[in-house]
Design goal:
501 residues, alpha/beta, Growth Hormone, Chain: A, Rossmann fold, 2 domains, 4-stranded antiparallel sheet, 18 helices, 15% strand, elongated
Length: 501
Amino acid sequence: MKQVSPLFVVVLIIATCGLIYELIVGTLASYLLGDSITQFSTVIGVYMFALGVGAWVSRYFERNIAARFVEVELAVALVGGISAPFLFFTFSEGASFRVTLYSVVVITGTLVGLEIPLLMRILKDSLQFKDLVSRILSFDYLGALFASLLFPIVLVPKLGLVRTSLLFGLLNAVVGLWSTFLLHEQLGSAVRLRVKGVLACVVLMTGFVLGDRMTLLFEEQLYHDEVVHAQSSPYQRIVLTRGARGFSLFLNGNLQFSSVDEYRYHEALVHPAMQSAVTRRRVLILGGGDGLAAREVLRWPDVESVTLVDLDPAITTLATKYPELHGLNGGALEHAKLKVVNDDALRFLAELPADRRFDVAIIDFPDPNNFSLGKLYTTRFYALLKGALAEGGVAVVQSTSPLFARRSFWCVDATLRASGFHTRPYHAWVPSFGEWGYVLASISPLETREPLPDGLKFLSDATLPTLFVFPKDMEQVPAEVNRLNNQVLVHYYEDEWRRWN
C-alpha cells in the first residue's frame, strides 16, 4: 500500500508528458505544413486512435508486467523526447514528411496508450477496482489539464518546441528510472533497466542542453537566408533572416515582409485610406507591430496621434531594439505621436470608450490561417471597427491575395459590406508575395480627397487609380460572409493556399 501514492504521481506525470507530445507534434505539423485546422485535427485524431491501439495491445503483455512498464516508459521518453528535433530534421532534409510525421504520432500514441493499462494491472492488487479506475482516470485527466496550461503559457514561450520535447522526454526517463525503485518487489533485479534509464537520461539531458543550437541549425535549413535572430513568444515563433537582398521577418514560418520590397506593401496598405479620409488627426493601427505601417502613416503632417495595437510585445520590442528593423521603420514606434498598446485587437475595440473615435484605421493582421486570426475578419469584429470610426472615417484591411486566394479575398469584401461598410477593393504587386489585396471601407461613400505625400517610392497620384482595376482572373467571385459561428474564411483560405504550398 505504501507504493500506491507514488505510483499515482507517476500516472499524473505520464499523462502530462503524453499530452505534451501530442501538442508538440500538432503544433509542428501546423507550423511546417500550414493548413493549421486540418493538420492539428488529424494529428489529434490519429494520436487518439493510437492510444486505443496501445491499450488493445497491452492485453498481449502477460509476463513481467512491471519490467514491461518500465521499458515502455523509457521508450516513450526517447521517442517523445526526440520527436520535435527529429521532425524538424526530416522536414529540412526534404524526406516524405507527412509519412514521417504520422509515423511518429502513431508510435508515440501507441506507447503512451500502453502505459496506463500496464500500470492498472500493476496496481490491481492494491485497490478495489472502482477505486483503482477512479483514481487512475482522475490523475490522468489532471495531467492533461497541467499539460494544456503549461504548453502555451510557459513551455513554448520559454523553451521552444525542441527543448520542450526533450525536457519531457527526460521527465519520462526519470519516471522510468524512479519506477524501478517503486516496483522493486515485482522487478527483482533491475540493474539492466536502471542502466537503460540512466543512458536515456544522459542522451535526453545532452539534447536539452544543446536544444537551442539544434533549433537554430534546423531553422537555418528551413530558410534560404541566414537566421540572424530567433525567439519564441507566448503567441508565435519569430525569425529574422538576412541575405544578399536584405532581411526578412517570419512569424510561425510565414513571411511577413522582405526589406527589399516591403515599401510596396505598406505604401499600398496605408496611403489610399489616408488619402480618402475627411481628416487624419487620429489614426488607429491594428497589427503592424513591426512599425512599417506606422512609418507610412507618419508621413502625413496633419496626423496628431497614432495608436498601434499589437498583441505580441515581443514584436513591438523587436521593432525598437533590433537595429536593422528600427532603421527600416525609421524609429516609428518611438515617435512622440505614437502610442503602443499590447492587447488583443478585438478586446481593444470592444472596450473602447464611446467618446474615443479614429479618423483612419489601418488593419494589418496576418492572413486568416486559423480560427484565432479568423475572428478578426468576421462581422463581429467589423461591427466593432465601424463603431470605432469617427464621422467620415476610413478603414483599410489587408485581405490576402486576390490571385492565389481569390474567394478568400472577396469573402473579406463581402463581410465588410455585410457589416454596413461601403467598400473599394484594390490590389498591388509585391514581389515577395505576388499580387496582394486590400479593401478600403467607410461608412459613407469613398472618394479621393488629398494628393499623396512626398517621398513615396511606389505610389503616385497618377498610378494609384490603376490599383482599383482588377483583371479577369481576379474579378469578384461569390463568397459567403465570414461570421464567428462559421469562420468560412479560414476554410476558404486553407483550401485555396493548399494548392500553392
